[in-house]
Design a protein that fits this description.
about 550 residues, alpha/beta, four-stranded mixed β-sheet, 17 strands, about 35% helix, elongated
Amino acid sequence: MTYQVYDTTLRDGAQREGISYSVVDKLAVARLLDEFGVGFIEGGWPGAMPKDTEFFRRARTELDLKHAVLVAFGATRKAGVAVDADPQLRALLDAETPAVCLVAKSDIRHVERALRTTGAENLKMVAESVAHLVGQGRRVFLDCEHFFDGCRHDPAYTASVVDAALGAGAEVVVMCDTNGGMLPSRVTAAIGELTDRLGVAPTRLGIHCQNDTSCAVANTVAAVEAGVEHFQCTANGYGERPGNADLFAVVANLQLKLGLPVLPDGCLEQMVRVSHAIAEIANIAPDTHQAYVGAAAFAHKAGLHASAIKVDPVLYNHIDPAVVGNDMRILVTEMAGRASIELKSRELGLDLAGHPEALSRVTKRVKDLEAGGWSFEAADASFELLIRNELPEAAVPRPFALESYRVQVEHREDGAVVSEATVKIRVRGERVIATAEGNGPVNALDEALRVGLLRHYPQLRGFELADYKVRILEGSHGTGAVTRVLVETANGAGRDWTTVGVHPNVVEASWHALVDALTYGLAHSPESARGGREGGDHGSVVTAG
């Protein structure tokens, strides 16, 4: 392809605080990037980092790349050292990659103060290193570190570094905004000045932008619009400080907004899957609000938006979310109007359009509850139960009736803290008293409720509390603070759901969310219809440690 999508997640992206890839991680990320269709994958710095040396060794037999070319990264030869005696260049050749990316100083201040050599020697280091690797059959890219800073300080010297690399056979010389301080208009101007000075086509240049001005994506797009065809990015914008240009935003902007064919056919729709999978490997939660791939990238909250979307989704979506593997969502909040509620109910498989009175009741109920601190935008399961309660034919009966519950926390002499909960409930005509301990009052309450229900609903064995979030909301009009609890439950079969509860007491708020969680899960369980046997009017006492 004409455009060179060059990914440096495994090298520059790994410099983000908190990221530490194992060799297995790096191999997995490389496979995902290849599935996404990038043209080049920079795997790391062999020789300088043992982990990267091991990665390239294993990649030779364990990676079967369909789209990408693997690239080894390293520095030019050291000052005063012959190319055939330089250990760094030897390590790059030993990596046995088809392509190599060298980094070189292009700001004379860095040459003299950091490398402690002369400008002339630096030019020889660049030219001789590039020529040596090209002579060994490698495709060579050269990253000009601090290119834009160098251009402002001494444009003639920076241009001479580019000229030396191209003259020695470099395929592309990459302009690096190492400090991340550039703006799009300045990137465009710098490219024009360089091409005029050297008489080279912008297609011989590349771009690599850090995100310190939050302009890395815009700067990269500006460079491509100025004629550059090689652009370097990282998945999800990972990198040191604020990061790098986000691969997914750059590719989507170029392909969907400018109509440039930067990825092979069929790859763009893998964007969300690949983005989230790489985030999981990096052990970083996916950014909900990330452009194109975030869960909220096509989420609509205001009722005015939803009214237009009901007529035509294109009216408030800048692209069809499915093109990048995403989905449109309608958020249910106090800002929601009838159209938002109607669209959200349709998304959940329920039809409120044919029930205008129920639609009005649900809309009013949502506004009233959210005014009191409830939030349904992250609790689809609770919202679905609310809708079903207004539709007699779709109503979900509660699996039990509460008589009472009690929770106590004991701090013992040895320092141990034990939480114990007792619930008294009626299940299918049977009065059940259940007691359980837990690692906190909410966990104990959850365990006690499950113990009491298990004989009638054995499918509860597969349910587990996956996440629990608490937020304290400031009261208004002289009232005290209230607590909002979000509970995420999983069924062990790849399905999870979130419920909400609100109350001034955190345990009671948790109780509301737990009851909704079990009610929703049982209603959607294939075993719910079978359940346990009907009981007469008798009682039982169950205890779990």
